[in-house]
Amino acid sequence: MKFLVFFELLLIVNFFYQFECQSKIWKKLNLPNEHIPYFFNSNQALRKKCLKDDLCPYKELASQNATKCWGYEKNCKSNNRLFVPECPGSSNGWVTDKQEQVELFWKQGDFGYIKERLGEMKTYCEAEKPGDSKLECVNHLRMCRAKNIFFDFADLNSKNSNDRYREDIFKRGQVGGRCKLDSGLLKKNGDHKSPLQSWYSELQLFQELETNPVDDSKCDIVVDQPTFLIKLDAGVNMYHHFCDFVNLYVSQHANNSFLQNVNIVFWDTSGSDYWSYFSDMWKVFSNKKPIHLKNYEGKKFASEMQYSRFLLVCALAYSTTCR
Known about the structure:
Layout: H1 2-27, H2 36-42, H3 44-52, H4 59-63, H5 98-109, H6 112-120, E1 122-126, E2 134-137, E3 144-147, E4 149-152, E5 175-177, E6 180-181, H7 183-188, H8 200-203, E7 207-208, E8 221-223, E9 227-230, H9 238-254, E10 263-266, H10 282-285, E11 291-292, E12 300-303, E13 306-308
Parallel strand pairs: 5-7, 8-12, 9-10, 9-13, 10-11
Antiparallel strand pairs: 1-2, 1-6, 2-3, 3-13, 4-5, 4-12
Helix pairs in contact: 5-6
């Protein structure tokens, strides 16, 4: 009798454990309901899982609008895009006709921008075996994503600097990964080197390492959660700071990742603290408090998965003529 009661209790505990785990899967989707069909189009495995899961709150959305897409997916037709721009202004002088005007805006100020950048994505350091490092970037290193990458912040020296965009914090041997580096491709894409235009300054000394930095015991910090590295514009100005948030949102799309269980690291090489009227906006992207780069000063750091956010996405915001 005692065994039967224990067995029934075990079944009940197991049921609630499975219920909680299944519920957490769908709670992690940090998207409004109207965007869920577009997300499922890019994540067919999750869509199928939802359709089979009685606990999925998006079952109706998963069963409908299977062709809806953001616009940057390979199989996305223009009539299924989330948004079709309208350009009431004249197209004379800078494009040949109205259709070209609409298409140009879509490529420069809509999800077409992501489509073109993803088309540029190249591997700069190739993993040669499972568990190795990997580095891939778009042209001019405006956005990169990496796996098992190593940084040594021994020379960050943020306490003695007010410069937020220093380009001298790494020496040779202080940034790299165990992978096959295409040094020629890396150097070729250093032509836009500038604090808020490219990540070349941070990666120009990238080196092939003999050991996997994540497995190597020499690291002081190993982060096993997705991490966004972000260079900030002016946090006191609404326009400039919201460029940071727009760029981060674009980076989420480029990486097909909308989970909030991520780290956000402010790539600020000064010893200054971050302050902004708009700091609550970070809660939209992460359930964790952002980390200042100076927290890693003097330490060897490795991350199993990290992304750098896009730079220059807001460059056309002053002159857009469509909506």
